[in-house]
Amino acid sequence: NYKVAYSKLKNYYKLKEKLTGIEQKIKLNGIETRYLVAEKEHKINILSLKDKMNTKKLWTLWLFITVLIFMLLGLFLFLRLKQKQNKLNMLKMRRSIENYITQIEEVKEQNIELIKQKEDNIIEQVKKFGLTEREEKILILISKGYTNNEIAEKMFVSINTIKTHTKNIFIKLNVRNRTEAAKKAQNQ
To answer: Structurally, what CATH architecture does the domain formed by 128-187 represent?
Structure first.
């Protein structure tokens, strides 16, 4: 009996141990399950936060891109407007310049006409002094303000020839210098 009782007791403890082990396993499984659930919930929360952050980043990026597009559009419109203003200003300036050129050409034509009249008048006046044809040309150039060197180059003669003709002109006009000769040729 002792052996049987001992064996039953032994079986009882084994069974109890098994039951205790099963209960502990069940408890451990419950704890493990709760831990895994909590871990999964934590991961879900983190993913949710990341998703919210990504959404905010996307909205921020979208807002930035939108603002950038509007700024670029504004810059484009500003530059386009500036370009049109510049074209308009250039057109106005061109018209002004064309008007000035027209006025200058009119004044130039008037001056050319006056110069021709003056030259004709000088030629008529010069003829009264009994000058040679070459002396007449030199006197006309003197009255226009040419120097002896310029007259020599223009007439293809030496400077000494011009000086000689100039002295003869002074004698015939009864003057002492170029200024008096020019005045006499223009005023007589």
So the answer is: Orthogonal Bundle (1.10)
